[in-house]
Structure formats: structure tokens, C-alpha cells
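User: Sequence recovery, please. Input:
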């Protein structure tokens, strides 16, 4: 009886997958493949094949060509275990960079390159789209399950203020752009308190890998015309990898020197590590021939056995030394990352030593193989478990006992995730049989994460619409610290993103700047073309911006258009060079003011510090007042708010969340005003230009720190949204009445109508 015919591939399937292979190829296209690591060398037809590698004739219509058969490398599978063990141990107990992640990036490129070069040299199709489907079908489901568990743990264990960021990172992690989100958030990966980190922060490296998995096969596709003409592909690919590696390494060194926390997550600063892995894969066949390498299944001993054994142990010692002997936390991913790559490369090149005491013997043991098998799942789960535990325990680092319990629990969970999710999906012949099935697995994984996150956020929004808004009138006065917790303290943690005081319109028409300036938004209160009696412009740092809700009632009472032209972290101090970041901002502001001719300018005139009562008038502030008032502009000079060494909202939220009271939150997080502010307003000595605009000092310290005490919660309102910015709710409710009284008082600026009528 004839065997059943294979299903006929559609045109779409042929494009996605290429001609169906008659043989089952061992897959080892990334550093997370379990039990399937391969060498980069070709196997001769008379050499024993790797276990499970059953060569079959080429499909009909394709020429017979020698195929490079992958050989199982048990020691590289064990190297995964070492790298992952270093990552977990260093995270749990040491809080240092281990270099283990760099090894995974290196191995990813090594395995991927071996796979695609074998395809090129054997005349088989690259099947790049099929590779993408196969890879992400394997990697995404375990990642999605982990992300969903993290979201559950976040809702149960973490404060509401952490929810929005983790929701955002959940979707970013599933989409392999978590590293880009972390760059945007400017997260410092080396923060000493790992408990304050995101439980999804470790997905940055998976995102870098995912982006490289998309890019790298396209690079091999460039060599396809050469392969079709029967020409060698290793040399041109080597040149390509050298160029990419050199450019990326140069950028990595530069970026690490000037913005290390950002460089740490930057894919471009990491590509040289992929290039290094590819270069080793391209060169390894030649290295093996020159050094007489052999595999255990060959039945012959390799040459240079003692040297191979020593090389393997030197590589292991090098990996262990990174982070212990060398504290490289602030130097990665610059040139220092070459240390773990050289160490891993030594293990790869050493290969099978043929000795009883070589490192390959240890790396080929069952325990090493077990950790290698669950390495992907263990990487996924160990970090969120650590972060959640540190938050619950209140510790900065795990101790010996709880760390061991945590690691054991992570291993058990990783084993379960591998057995129940990873392995069944990875080995599923049904999913591999049709590209649309693999695509469905990928899409379902992303949809589950995005859908869960979106549903959660939607429920929060629905809950908020049924409760008092974050800006609703307070049920309790905002000048007292309550001894009993009110039913609800606003704003809620997940609402903090809405507490930044944005104006509703983008600058347009005559108020639109003629040029843009980096990091400077231009927002206006009234739509373009709306009639108004005058113009108020806010300049300076975010500490000037935070006063916008306080002065809006006064501005609206006097029919003023309000423009926000602030720049975070930059005071308005003409003639003074604050920093390279702020360079040019003062001139930009003056040019804008000359163009729009405002009636009033609001800025801050003092600067506080987090750890003392030192409060000063920044150098150049006197010049700023003179520059503005000499132009006939009335100046509102606002006193700075107290700054803190820790997040005041998070501190108070933790106390309130543990059934504490505002008084207890004040005791844990507050301070006397005398410890946060100077005894007198340092801006009292500022004077306006003679014959120019007026100067009004706006000092709202008595409302921010009533009765000489700066508390995180006043009435039913959180005062701070972070370590130095007031919540919009508090500013509107507690500061606006006082600000209006000052601005309408005898020392306040003249109203626009009075000026238009010739008042003086």
C-alpha cells in the first residue's frame, strides 16, 4: 500500500517555510534551546551523526549536496546552566552584574549562525519567515505565562502606584521592546534596592535577543546569492560581522561612558556581542581542524587534551570572576563585557577535552543538563519572584536562608513551566505542521498579555468614574494631618500619571515657537484664536510647571492665556551655564518671550536640596529677574518646594496600605519645615529693573508645610507624587486659594486690563 501523500503546501506556506524538508533538523537557533546545542563544524558522511539526527534524501527537485550535520555539544548545554546560575545567584545575593546575560547573547548568535550557515552551505532554503515563526512560537508562550503571573502578583502584592508602569512593561515585554521602554523610563538597572525595580525589568535582555533574532537572519540572506552560485559564504559573512561588531563596540564604549544606565539596555550597544558569537561560529570549523578537535561520538581522542581541559576551566574561572573579582556594574556593556565573552569562547573552543578532569566533564553531567533544560524558564521566573519577595519582606537583598528558599522555589516553578508549557509547545508537531498554527500561537500569547492588561486598566478606569475624581473637593481640610485614615486618600497610586499639570492645547498660531527646542513642550490653555486679555508664560524647570494649577484660577479670573514652556531640570538663569543638557534653553526662552510679548512670566527663584535645609537662589536668578522686568514683564517668582531623598508618595502609600494612618505616615516619611527649607525665603533680595515690570514673590510654604511640618498626607490628599513634585490635586485644592490671594493682593502684578487702560 502506498504511503499517504503529504499535504500540498499553499503558496503562502511555501513562502513562509520554503520547500518542506524530508528530514527533521535539530534546532538550536538561540541560547535557550533545550538539549539541542550544536557545533558549528560540518560532519563528514562517515562520521557518526548526533543522536536523533536521521539524515534523509533531499526533497524531490532539489540537488543532493553535502549537509552539515549538527553534533550535540553537551558541554555547551551545561554552559547555559553556568550562565543562568550566575545570573540568578548574583541577582539574589550579590546585586551585581554577572556577565551571564552577555553569555546568552553570545551563544544566541553562535547557535543561530551555525544553523543558517549550514543551510547556506548545504543548499537548503533559509526559510527566514519560518525561522521567525518557529523561534517566537517557542519563546513567547512561556514568556506570556510568566507575564500573566507577574500581573497577578503585581495586583496582589505591589502598591497601586507601581501598576501603570508594570502594565506598560507587560505589553512591551510581550512585544520584545521592553529595553526601549526602560530606556525611555531611564531606569537605573544598578539600583541597590532591587525590591524597587520592576518585576519585568529582566525582559530587557529577551527584548534585545528578540530584536536580534529578527535582524540576524536578514544578514545571512545577504549571502544567499553567493551560496546559489556555489561560492563560499563564510568569508563575506566574517567581514560583515567584523564591521557590525566594530561599529557597535565603538558606540557601546562611547554610550557607556556618557549614559551607562541607558547604554545598558541599548540594542545597538549590544550587537557587538552577537557579532562576536557569529564570528566564533564562522571560525570554529577551521579552529577545530587546526587543533584536532573531536566529539565523544567520534571514537577518537582530540589533540591537545590537557590544554583543552585547562582552557575550559580558565573559561569557567573567568565567568565566575566577573562581578566578584571585577566589579563591573558601572562599566557594562562597554569594552569590559569582552571578559565574559572571551571566557565563554574559551569553553566553546575547548570543547570535548577527552580527559576525566576537564570542565566539559562537569558541564556534561546530569545536574548541569537539568539546569540547562530549564534555563529559559528559570530566567523568566527568578527575577519577578525576587522582586516580589523583597517588596513583601521589605529587605534590600535576600539573606542566605530566604535566598536559598527563593532559588529552590524558582527552580521548581521553572521546571513546571518547562514541562507544562515550554516543552509541549516546542515539540508540538501539530504547531509546526502549518505556519498559521505557529503564527496563531504567537498571536495568542501576545493577545493574552495585551488583553489582560487592557482589561485591568479598563476596570480601573471604570472604578474611577464611579468614585470621586482625583481633583474633586476634599472631604477633609488640607491643612491638618488626620489621626484616622479617611475612607479614601486621593490621588490613587495608578492615577499618578494624570497628576502632571499639562495644558490642554499645543501652541499654535502666534504662540507657536518659530523653532523647536529639545525636551521643551509648548502648551497653551485656550485654543488658538480665543480672545484673551493678556498672556502668562511659565518658564524654568518642572518645579515651575507644578505651580500651574495653583495660578490657573487667578489667570482665568483675569482672562489670561497661559503658555507652558518649561524644561525639566533646567532653571531659567540667563548668562549661567547650568549643564550641557540645559545649554541654550535660556536663550530660547528669551527669543520666544521677545516674539510673543507676554504680560506675566512665572518661574521659580529658589532651589532646595533633598537632604538638608540648604535653600539658595540659583546663580543667574537675579539676572533673570532683571532681563524679564526690563522688558516690562511682570514676574511671579515662586519659592521652591521641599525635596526628599525618597519617594514621598511610595513611602506614605506603604504605610497607608498596611492599614496605617496619616499620622503614622507623617512619622515615617515627613519632616519639620526647618529641616527642608531655609528660615527665610532666599529670593527676598531679588529686585526688578527700575521702571520695568513688577516682581511678586509667591511663597506657599505655609500651605505645603502647615504649622511647620511637611507631611506626605494632608486631609484626604497626598501632597507629593514622587520625591519632589506636588500632586496636581493638592496644588489645586490647597495652593490655588492662597496663590490667588497673593496675586490679587497689594504686592501682586497689575492686571492686564489695568495695564491696557494705562494703570500704573
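Assistant: Recovered sequence (760 residues):
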Amino acid at each position: 500500500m502506498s504511503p499517504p501523500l503529504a499535504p500540498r503546501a499553499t503558496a503562502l506556506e511555501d513562502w513562509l517555510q520554503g520547500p518542506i524538508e524530508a528530514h527533521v533538523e535539530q534546532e538550536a537557533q538561540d541560547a535557550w534551546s533545550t538539549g539541542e546545542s550544536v557545533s558549528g563544524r560540518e560532519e563528514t558522511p562517515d562520521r557518526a551523526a548526533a543522536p536523533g539526527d536521521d539524515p534523509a534524501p533531499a526533497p524531490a527537485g532539489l540537488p543532493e549536496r553535502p549537509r552539515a550535520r549538527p553534533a550535540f555539544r553537551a558541554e555547551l548545554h551545561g554552559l547555559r546552566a553556568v550562565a543562568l546560575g550566575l545570573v540568578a545567584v548574583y541577582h539574589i545575593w550579590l546585586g551585581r552584574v554577572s556577565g551571564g546575560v552577555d553569555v546568552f547573547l553570545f551563544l544566541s548568535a553562535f547557535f543561530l549562525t551555525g544553523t543558517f550557515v549550514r543551510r547556506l552551505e548545504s543548499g537548503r532554503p533559509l526559510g527566514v519567515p519560518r525561522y521567525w515563526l518557529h523561534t517566537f512560537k517557542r519563546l513567547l508562550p512561556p514568556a506570556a505565562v510568566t507575564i500573566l503571573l507577574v500581573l497577578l502578583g503585581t495586583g496582589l502584592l505591589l502598591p497601586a502606584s507601581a501598576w501603570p508602569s508594570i502594565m506598560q512593561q507587560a505589553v512591551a515585554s510581550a512585544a520584545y521592546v521592553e529595553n526601549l521602554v526602560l530606556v525611555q523610563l531611564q531606569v537605573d538597572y544598578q539600583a541597590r534596592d532591587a525590591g524597587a525595580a520592576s518585576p519585568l525589568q529582566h525582559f530587557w535582555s529577551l527584548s534585545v535577543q528578540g530584536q536580534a533574532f529578527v535582524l540576524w537572519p536578514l544578514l545571512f540572506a545577504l549571502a544567499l546569492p553567493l551560496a546559489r552560485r556555489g561560492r563560499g559564504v563564510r568569508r563575506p559573512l566574517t567581514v560583515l560581522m567584523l564591521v557590525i561588531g566594530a561599529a557597535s563596540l565603538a558606540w557601546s564604549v562611547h554610550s557607556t561612558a556618557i549614559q551607562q544606565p541607558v547604554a545598558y539596555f541599548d540594542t545597538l550597544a549590544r550587537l557587538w556581542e552577537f557579532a562576536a558569537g557569529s564570528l566564533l561560529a564562522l571560525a570554529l570549523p577551521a579552529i577545530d581542524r587546526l587543533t584536532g578537535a573531536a566529539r565523544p561520538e567520534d571514537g577518537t581522542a582530540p589533540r591537545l587534551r590537557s590544554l583543552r581541559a585547562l582552557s575550559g576551566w580558565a573559561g569557567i574561572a573567568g565567568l565566575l570572576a566577573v562581578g566578584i573579582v571585577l566589579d563591573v556594574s558601572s562599566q557594562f556593556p562597554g569594552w569590559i563585557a569582552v571578559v565574559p565573552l572571551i571566557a565563554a569562547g574559551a569553553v566553546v573552543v575547548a570543547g570535548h577535552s577527552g580527559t576525566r578532569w576537564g570542565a566539559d566533564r562537569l558541564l556534561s553531567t546530569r545536574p548541569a543538563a537539568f539546569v540547562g533544560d530549564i534555563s529559559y524558564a528559570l530566567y523568566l521566573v527568578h527575577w519577578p519572584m525576587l522582586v516580589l519577595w523583597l517588596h513583601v519582606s521589605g529587605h534590600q537583598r535576600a539573606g542566605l536562608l530566604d535566598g536559598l528558599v527563593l532559588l529552590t522555589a524558582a527552580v521548581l516553578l521553572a521546571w513546571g513551566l518547562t514541562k507544562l508549557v515550554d516543552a509541549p509547545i516546542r515539540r508540538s508537531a501539530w504547531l509546526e505542521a502549518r505556519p498559521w498554527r505557529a503564527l496563531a500561537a504567537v498571536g495568542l500569547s501576545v493577545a493574552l498579555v495585551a488583553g489582560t492588561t487592557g482589561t485591568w486598566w479598563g476596570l480601573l478606569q471604570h472604578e474611577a468614574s464611579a468614585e470621586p475624581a482625583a481633583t474633586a473637593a476634599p472631604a477633609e481640610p488640607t491643612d491638618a494631618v488626620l489621626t484616622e485614615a479617611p475612607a479614601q486618600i486621593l490621588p490613587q497610586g495608578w492615577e499618578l500619571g494624570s497628576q502632571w499639570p499639562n495644558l490642554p492645547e499645543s501652541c499654535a498660531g502666534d504662540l507657536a515657537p518659530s523653532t523647536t527646542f529639545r525636551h521643551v513642550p509648548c502648551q497653551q490653555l485656550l485654543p488658538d484664536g480665543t480672545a484673551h486679555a493678556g498672556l502668562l508664560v511659565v518658564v524654568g524647570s518642572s518645579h515651575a510647571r507644578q505651580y500651574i494649577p495653583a495660578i490657573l484660577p487667578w489667570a482665568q479670573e483675569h482672562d489670561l492665556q497661559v503658555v507652558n514652556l518649561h524644561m525639566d531640570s533646567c532653571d531659567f538663569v540667563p548668562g549661567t551655564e547650568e549643564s550641557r543638557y540645559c545649554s541654550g534653553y535660556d536663550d530660547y526662552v528669551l527669543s520666544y518671550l521677545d516674539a510673543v510679548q507676554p504680560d506675566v512670566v512665572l518661574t521659580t527663584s529658589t532651589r532646595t536640596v533633598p537632604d538638608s535645609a540648604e535653600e539658595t537662589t540659583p546663580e543667574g536668578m537675579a539676572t533673570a529677574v532683571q532681563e524679564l522686568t526690563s522688558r516690562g514683564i511682570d514676574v511671579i517668582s515662586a519659592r521652591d518646594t521641599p525635596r526628599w531623598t525618597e519617594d514621598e508618595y511610595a513611602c506614605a502609600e506603604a504605610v497607608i496600605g498596611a492599614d496605617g494612618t496619616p499620622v503614622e505616615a507623617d512619622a515615617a516619611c515627613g519632616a519639620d519645615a526647618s529641616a527642608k527649607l531655609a528660615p527665610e525665603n532666599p529670593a527676598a533680595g531679588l529686585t526688578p529693573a527700575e521702571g520695568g515690570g513688577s516682581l511678586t514673590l509667591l511663597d506657599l510654604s505655609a500651605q505645603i508645610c502647615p504649622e511647620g511640618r511637611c507631611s506626605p498626607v494632608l486631609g484626604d490628599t497626598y501632597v507629593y507624587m514622587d520625591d519632589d513634585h506636588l500632586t496636581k490635586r493638592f496644588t489645586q485644592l490647597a495652593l490655588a486659594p492662597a496663590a490667588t490671594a497673593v496675586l490679587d493682593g497689594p504686592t501682586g502684578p497689575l492686571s492686564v486690563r489695568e495695564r491696557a487702560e494705562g494703570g500704573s
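The longest strand covers residues 534-538.
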